[in-house]
Design brief:
- The structure is a single chain.
- The chain contains 10 helices and 6 strands.
- The chain has 2 domains: 1-32, no CATH class; 33-217, 3-Layer(aba) Sandwich (Beta-carbonic Anhydrase, Chain A).
- The chain has helices at 3-20, 22-31, 49-52, 81-92, 107-114, 116-120, 126-130, 134-143, 149-168, 172-179, and strands at 37-42, 60-65, 97-103, 184-190, 197-201, 206-209.
- Helix 8 (134-143) packs across helix 9.
- It is α/β, with parallel strands linked by helices.
C-alpha cells in the first residue's frame, strides 16, 4: 500500500469509524484493554488476523513475527520481543486464549526450507529465527520421501504451529494458567488460496476443517 493510500485511509478512519465510535475509544483509554485472545501470527502482509476474523479495536492482542513462531523459554540474552509480548498478554492482561495462527505459502517457512541459500543471499537474522523448524522439516522429508516440494512446505507450515504450541508450554506462567483452566491454547491454520481455516485437534493429532467444529456455528465466540 503506497503511503498516500495509508494517509487517505487514516483520514477516512478519523472522520468515519473513529467519530462513529468515539465512546468506545474513550472507554478503552480509561478502562484499559481486555482482549479475548492473544494471536501469534505471521508478519505476512497477506494474512491479517484482524481482517480475517473481523476483529475490532480491543478484541485481539496481536503478536506478529516471521513464521508465527514462539521461541522456547530462555532467560539469557536481552531482546526477547515475542516472549515479552506473551508475558504481558498473560500476566498483564490475563488473556483467556492464545491462538497460534499459521498459514499457507509462508515465506518464513520457505526461508527455513531454502536453508543455506538464504545466508548466501545476505540474510543475517531470518535463518537463525526459523531454524527452530529444522527438525520438523527433517521429519517431513524422512516420512514423506515421495512428496513434492509444495506438499513438504504445507506440512512444515502446519508443523510451525505445533512447534509454537509446544514452546508455549515451556513458559511456567502459561503452564500454571493452563493447569488452573484459565488459559487455553489453540492451533489454527489459514489457507491463503481458499480462505479455509483448520483447527488443530490435540485428541486426534490432526488439523480439521473449522466447519467440522461445533464451536464454529456458535454465536458470540
Amino acid at each position: 500500500m503506497p503511503i498516500a493510500r495509508m494517509l487517505k485511509g487514516y483520514r477516512e478512519f478519523k472522520t468515519g469509524m473513529h467519530e462513529g465510535s468515539r465512546e468506545k475509544f474513550e472507554s478503552m483509554v480509561h478502562e484499559g484493554q481486555h482482549p479475548g485472545a492473544a494471536v501469534i501470527a505471521c508478519s505476512d502482509s497477506r494474512v491479517d488476523p484482524a481482517f480475517v476474523f473481523r476483529a475490532e479495536p480491543g478484541d485481539i492482542f496481536m503478536i506478529r513475527n516471521v513464521a508465527n513462531l514462539v521461541p522456547p523459554m530462555e532467560e539469557g540474552g536481552t531482546f526477547h520481543g515475542t516472549s515479552a509480548a506473551l508475558e504481558y498478554a498473560v500476566l498483564g492482561l490475563n488473556v483467556p486464549n492464545i491462538v497460534v495462527l499459521g498459514h499457507a505459502h509462508c515465506g518464513g517457512v520457505k526461508a527455513m526450507i531454502d536453508g543455506e541459500a538464504m545466508t548466501e543471499a545476505g540474510y543475517s537474522f531470518v535463518p537463525g529465527w526459523v531454524s527452530t523448524l529444522s527438525a520438523a522439516h527433517r521429519r517431513a522429508l524422512a516420512t514423506m520421501p515421495d512428496a513434492t516440494d509444495e506438499e513438504i512446505a504445507r506440512v512444515c507450515e502446519r508443523n510451525a504451529v505445533l512447534v509454537s504450541l509446544e514452546n508455549l508450554t515451556t513458559f511456567p506462567w502459561i503452564r500454571e494458567r493452563m493447569a488452573a483452566k484459565t488459559l487455553k491454547l489453540h492451533g489454527w491454520y489459514f489457507d491463503l488460496e481458499t480462505a479455509g481455516l483448520e483447527i488443530y485437534d490435540s485428541a486426534t493429532g490432526r488439523f480439521e476443517k473449522a466447519e467440522n467444529s461445533a464451536a464454529f456455528f456458535q454465536d458470540g465466540l
